[in-house]
Design a protein that fits this description.
The chain is α+β, with helices and mostly antiparallel strands. It has four helices and eight strands; from the N terminus they run βαβββββαββαα. Helix 2 runs antiparallel to helix 3.
């Protein structure tokens, strides 16, 4: 069974044609307000959050040849995946995700891709608006609702 209709996570990517040093990333992420939790980097929400909502607006995956890279002391990367946990965040945080994603894009001087296609801010906003519409149509629930979180939780374990 496919669970794509739940839109748990949406991803954008920044892809470099050449390998770049991981050591360049911490300064950029810190400058933009990201938080480091050991090997995990995220742009976090602040303040009190409703139960079952996610605490990060953006989660970062650093990749080299399709494999996740951990640590920033040495090594190289060729792609960065920025994840937005669509279903477990209130829809109004989409604006923050888009702003932060394009800030990372600007700092790294790399175009942002969604589903393999280079996008601008308005196009990404439209994609997310369509996802919201689809989510509402498929489940009757809006992004970030407690009932949607319970529906997702009840779909595990998946085979």
């Amino acid at each position: 069974m496919s669970y794509e209709y739940l839109h748990e996570v949406e991803r954008v990517e920044l892809c470099s044609q050449v390998a770049r040093p991981t050591a360049e990333l911490p300064l950029i992420f810190r400058k933009l307000g990201f938080t480091f939790h050991d090997d995990v980097v995220s742009f976090d929400r602040h303040g009190k959050m409703p139960p079952l909502q996610h605490s990060s607006i953006v989660e970062v995956e650093v990749l080299r040849n399709g494999e996740e890279v951990f640590g920033f002391d040495d090594g190289e990367w060729d792609a960065i995946r920025l994840k937005y946990l669509f279903a477990t965040l209130p829809y109004e945080l989409v604006d923050t995700f888009v702003k932060v994603a394009f800030s990372v894009s600007k700092e790294l001087v790399l175009p942002l891709r969604y589903s393999g296609t280079i996008v601008d801010e308005m196009t990404l906003q439209r994609h997310f608006a369509e996802i919201r519409k689809d989510l509402l149509g498929q489940t009757g629930e809006d992004a970030g609702s407690e009932r949607l979180a319970i529906l997702i939780h009840s779909s595990y374990p998946r085979r």
